[in-house]
Amino acid sequence: MSNQGKFIAGIYPGTFDPVTKGHLHLIRRASLMVDKLIVAVADSPKKEPFFSYDERVDMLQEDISNLPEKGCEIAVLPFNKLLIHFARDVNATLIFRGLRAVSDFEYEFQMTGMNSKLDPEIETVFLMASDKWQFVSSSFVKEISSLNGDVSEFVTPQVLNKLNKKFEKQN
Question: Is-catalytic flag, 25?
């Protein structure tokens, strides 16, 4: 998707703990808008992720390799620095953020304003979650799974398998 001969790279950042079908839907849509999409897996130690950094990267790589209708090359890269610095490092000019509900907007609005102050050359693009995935979050998926609920509608089979194995070890 070139814009007058200009190569456009975008980033879709997140913790992806775990990746959901909602994330994958946004990844596919974002891939249709750029020449290269980097799915950036944040270290996020303050969030105390359930899955390790490597597990989250591996899950995303596997799910993206099976993703139909990719619009461009998609790379999965870990990062543990300021998002704007990472964007500069990978020559990205767009940051994709997903919005599920009004509750997401305030936080995203503040983050976008700060990112714009740090680097006005990097734009943020908001993608509204599909109505099918608006209520899905990684936190809900983990909580439901931890209580032996069925989350198979919200994650891929490989992620479901990893969730089941993790919770078997804890129970």
Answer: no
